[in-house]
Write a structure and sequence with these properties.
This is Outer membrane lipoprotein carrier protein LolA. Pfam families: LolA. It comes from Novacetimonas hansenii. Keywords: Lipoprotein, Signal. By secondary structure, the protein is mostly beta strands. It has a single domain, classed as Lipoprotein localisation LolA/LolB/LppX (outer membrane lipoprotein receptor (LolB), chain A, Clam). The chain has three helices and eleven strands; from the N terminus they run ααββββββαβββββ. The chain has an eleven-stranded antiparallel sheet with strand order 6-5-4-3-2-1-11-10-9-8-7.
């Protein structure tokens, strides 16, 4: 039986997002120019992509699944779950709120030391406080893993992109915690447009 969802939210937030390497090693200074170019492309995508919407399927560490709608603007993320129940996760302004009406519960936490915060820096700079641990470019795909420079072994955030005709599109987000527990979001039907309205990312639990 799948553990209560709020527990997994805490695991997701406390964890390090498509593979945890045996040891988190930074991309060395001698990284090829192409690696550095790919990192720059991802920075630009995360900082310049507005009005991103997509359907997501989330997989928990035990293999259980849920789905819903993802909304993203630079520095802000919202997940509206359809299954396993109508739930909402909103992350913005350095904080996260998760609402589970089934249990009449609200979970609040800071993103300051959470891997999800790596995605929601504003603006995103993939150097300094963030260390890039791996860059993998395949046929029509790009994958980049990152962690916090001051605690790279504590968890990993991996972003997967389709890369067709030089255009990136986010298709996967995975978090791996210090115990190598994985939570993954697979996206489909992604589209972009004007920035989402500010109130979509309100941390007010009445919205």
């Amino acid at each position: 039986m799948k553990p209560a969802f709020p527990f997994h939210v805490r695991r997701l937030m406390a964890g390090g997002l498509l593979m945890l390497l045996g040891a988190c090693q930074a991309v060395p200074d001698s990284a090829t120019l192409s690696q550095k170019d790919e990192i720059t492309r991802v920075e630009h995508y995360l900082n310049d992509t507005h009005g991103l919407g997509a359907h997501f399927v989330q997989t928990w560490p035990d293999g259980g699944k849920g789905d819903g709608k993802l909304y993203y603007d630079p520095g802000r993320l919202r997940l509206d779950y359809t299954t396993p129940a109508a739930m909402k996760l909103t992350a913005a302004n350095g904080h996260l709120v998760f609402i589970d009406p089934r249990r009449d519960s609200v979970t609040r936490m800071s993103l300051g030391h959470q891997p999800l915060g790596l995605l929601l820096q504003q603006p995103v700079h993939l150097d300094g406080a963030i260390v890039v641990t791996a860059v993998q470019h395949g046929t029509n795909s790009l994958q980049i893993s990152m962690a916090r420079s001051d605690s790279p072994s504590q968890g990993l955030l991996t972003l997967g992109f389709s890369d067709i005709a030089g255009k990136l599109s986010l298709i996967a987000i995975e978090m791996t915690d210090v115990e190598r527990q994985h939570i993954r979001l697979d996206l489909d039907g992604a589209h972009t447009g004007p920035a989402w309205p500010d109130d979509l990312f309100s941390l007010n639990t009445s919205k």
